[in-house]
């Protein structure tokens, strides 16, 4: 029987080693040293470093997210972006994800796995978000979910993997409004200040 604590140690070591050296220089020997286990312990669980890395990626992609249902499209977008930004601000994620995206261009197996798990996750989360917004009347009934999901997640991936810019709160607030308007929700209605209300002169 495989011990869960050893499996967890190997997964942690993999993430740290992947962040330190990248996929191309990653070795089972180094992961084993970092985890304090033998190479045999790893090979009992995974047949290669590719299998090990892909299993971690798939597990991370299917991690539990909070219920993204705030009652408004902008609220849902804000919460989704905050959750994603929190995950991507982690030093390991910020180093590993760009490296894997680059490696995917050279390795068809990694590319196919990333495409499969990421698209499935995007449709699972984004599809529900769009469906609720259409049902509430915030988006037009003919909104294309496929294009909408690309519009929602695209800027985050661009910012992280290509521009390598910071995901600041100000940027995310601007992104929420830009995406909402771009999807057809119309501009946000300003809230009246405390004590202010319609005048009856």
- Rg is 21 Å
Work out the number of β strands. Answer: 0
Could you state the CATH homologous superfamily of the largest domain? Tetracycline Repressor, domain 2
Globular, elongated, flat, extended or rod-shaped: what is the shape?
elongated
Number of helices: 9
CATH architecture of the largest domain: Orthogonal Bundle
Contiguous uncertain segments of 5+ residues: none
Q: CATH fold name of the largest domain, please?
A: Tetracycline Repressor, domain 2
Helix/strand-derived class?
mainly alpha
CATH class type of the largest domain: Mainly Alpha
InterPro entries: DNA-bd_HTH_TetR-type_CS (IPR023772), Homeodomain-like_sf (IPR009057), HTH-type_TetR-like_transc_reg (IPR050109), HTH_TetR (IPR001647), Tet_transcr_reg_TetR-rel_C_sf (IPR036271), TetR_C (IPR011075)
Domain HTH tetR-type: 4-64
Pfam families: TetR_C_11 (PF16859), TetR_N (PF00440)
GO molecular function, one term: transcription cis-regulatory region binding
């Amino acid at each position: 029987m495989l011990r869960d604590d050893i499996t967890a140690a190997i997964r942690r070591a993999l993430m740290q080693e992947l962040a330190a050296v990248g996929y191309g220089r990653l070795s089972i020997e180094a992961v084993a040293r970092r985890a304090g286990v033998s190479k045999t312990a790893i090979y009992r669980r995974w047949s290669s470093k590719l299998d090990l890395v892909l299993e971690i990626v798939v597990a991370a992609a299917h991690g539990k997210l909070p219920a993204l249902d705030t009652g408004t499209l902008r609220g849902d977008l804000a919460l989704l972006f905050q959750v994603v930004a929190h995950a991507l601000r982690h030093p390991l994620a910020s180093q590993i994800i760009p490296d894997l995206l680059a490696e995917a261009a050279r390795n068809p197996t990694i590319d196919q796995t990333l495409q499969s798990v990421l698209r499935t996750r995007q449709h699972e989360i984004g599809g529900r978000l769009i469906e609720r917004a259409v049902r509430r009347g915030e988006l037009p009934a003919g909104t294309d979910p496929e294009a909408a999901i690309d519009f929602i997640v695209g800027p985050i991936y661009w910012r992280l993997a290509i521009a390598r810019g910071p995901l600041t709160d100000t940027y995310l607030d601007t992104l929420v409004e830009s995406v909402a308007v771009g999807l057809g929700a119309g501009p946000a209605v300003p809230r009246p200040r405390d004590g202010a209300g319609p005048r009856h002169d």
